[in-house]
Write a structure and sequence with these properties.
Elements (H helix, E strand, L loop, with lengths): L8 H10 L1 E7 L8 E6 L4 E8 L14 H15 L7 E6 L2 E7 L9 H4 L6 H14 L9 E3 L5 E3 L26 H18 L2
Antiparallel strand pairs: 1-2, 2-3, 3-5, 4-5, 6-7
Length: 202
Amino acid sequence: MTDSIPLTEAQVLHTLSAGKLEEKGLLPYSSNHSFLVVVRDDTLTLPAVYKPQRGENPLWDFEWGTLCKREAAAYLIASALGWQLVPPTVLRDGTRGLGSVQFYIEHNAESHYFTIQDDARFAPSLRQLALFDFIVNNADRKSGHCLIGSDERLWAIDHGICFHTEYKLRTVIWEFSGEPIDTDLIADMTALRQQLTDVDHT
């Protein structure tokens, strides 16, 4: 997940969950308080984005204090689907209380959905992402929420207003509308449904 050291997802999650947070500054242009942080444990030092619960601005249609939880839940759903779209994200106590902590993706700010939508290299990931946004009922898929990492992969961020009980889908990704869903993506969703069913029955 970084250029300098090979990391497993489990290693990243462990450090994000148990490491010590050090704030580096408030990220600009965020509707809620988002901090660039460094997370350190005995073996790793990782950049991350920390979104504390108490820095959330109230929304009329989403319960206050749940945005950070929705950020973490979006990662869990993407991970359960086997779709590596959302950077590793955990929910934990930090320097400003409970919040989401997400691995920071090194990226080129000039690259986003509108600059790569016609690039065939990203078509499979964009198909996944369009379906993922439907699954989590994403009310805020903007172009800038699609990052092209230094690993040349598509990453999706900012999932604080997902999972509403009412239909809220709002997205810039409409080019796959009306097309059939690939059979492998249907298989992934079927497996997710079984996982959720198993959890519900335990």
